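Reply to dn_fold:

You asked what the input looked like. This is it:
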Amino acid sequence: MSGLRGVLAIPSFIRIAPRTLWRPSALKLLLCLFVGTSVAQIPKAATSLLHKEAPEFVRIDLENRRLDLRAYRGKVVLLDFWATWCASCQLEMPRFVAWQSQYGPRGLQIIGISMDDDPALARKLYKKMKLNYPVAMGDEKLGQLYGGVLGLPLTFLIDGQGKVQAQYQGETDLNLIEEQFKPLLRP
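and this is what came back:
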């Protein structure tokens, strides 16, 4: 049932019965409950951090370096929550790599947070996609600091003073994100 877990972004702490036990009506009920709950909570999470200070955290990244959000004060940060099973997340990554190269010298720092349960999966994708920005493993606690990670990708635009200027939920027009972070960068 790991395929169902990936499609629905079902948290790992929810147990899923073997496929033979599922009936179409039970699956429909689960989908309605899950989607209804997620949609009902999205507006609250989407506005809760806007124009507020981004919650600080310290993690060890996939290269075994200390990743402290506070250390990036003075830079514009795109904080991207993603997972290996998320197709939209993987579509964004090449553009994030390009932005890090192009805009990094002007003060942009992209930081990835993998919400996968297995760091080996995140490391494999990190290497495959040749990510040139730090990636650390996330968990429920870090997700809750950011209003609850209810769907992926979830990206926060944080200005140089550490305030959240925008939040992007799901597949987002990357040109819009670029338009919004460019004015915050150094010339």
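The longest strand covers residues 76-82.
Hope that clears it up.
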